Amino acid sequence: MTKTPWNKNKAVGQKKGFTVEEVELIRRCLIASNKTMELALLNVALDTHLKAKSITVLKVSNIMDYKGNIFDHILNRQITSETKEWLFKWINEAGKHQGDWLFNPRLKGGGYKTTTLTRSTYANIIKEWCVKYLEIDPKNYSTESLRNSKFK
């Protein structure tokens, strides 16, 4: 009796990073699709190189003061003015307050849930970008792909 290896037909090891061109294409597609939350998520991930577990538990209070100013740093990682702009747009569009989760999963009928984004939902968003916008095989990409994209 032979046992099938656990990793048969699975991509294992370090995931590929996105190229500058791929990131720019994703950005253009997200802007055209009016996906403000996903654009803010993309920018935060690229600027901070934070792990998925750190990004998914961010609250508005981690990135914005009580006066409505976005911090220059998120968890001691500097962010760009573009990222600050998209975060501000997302927070205003969603009507978020200091204690709210920064990123929320989408509802099927439109809108967003009140729970935080899970790591698996975050990974599915990235896989969706691979399939829908880049037309590439998503099995070689994950949340780590944004951390491995070192062009900023």
Placed side by side, the strands forming the largest sheet appear as 1-2
- Unreliable runs: none
CATH topology: hpI Integrase, Chain A
Q: What is the assigned CATH homologous superfamily?
A: Intergrase catalytic core
Number of domains: 1
| Radius of gyration using CA atoms only | 16 Å
Helix content: 40-55%
Class per helix and strand makeup:
mainly alpha
Helix tally? 7
CATH class assignment = Mainly Alpha
Q: How large is the share of residues in beta strands?
A: under 5%
Please trace the helix and strand order, writing H or E for each element: HHHHEEHHH
Looking at the overall shape, the CATH architecture is Orthogonal Bundle
Number of strand elements: 2
> Can you tell me the overall shape?
globular
Instruction: Report mean pLDDT, rounded to a whole number.
Output: 89
The N- and C-terminal alpha carbons lie at a distance of 51 Å
Major sheet description: 2 strands, antiparallel
Description:
With 152 residues, the chain is mostly helical. Helices cover 45% and strands 3% of the residues. The chain has a single domain, classed as Intergrase catalytic core (hpI Integrase, Chain A, Orthogonal Bundle), CATH 1.10.443.10. The longest helix has 16 residues. Strand 1 and strand 2 form a beta hairpin. It is globular, with a radius of gyration of 16 Å. The termini are far apart. The chain contains 7 helices and 2 strands. Helix 2 packs antiparallel against helix 5.
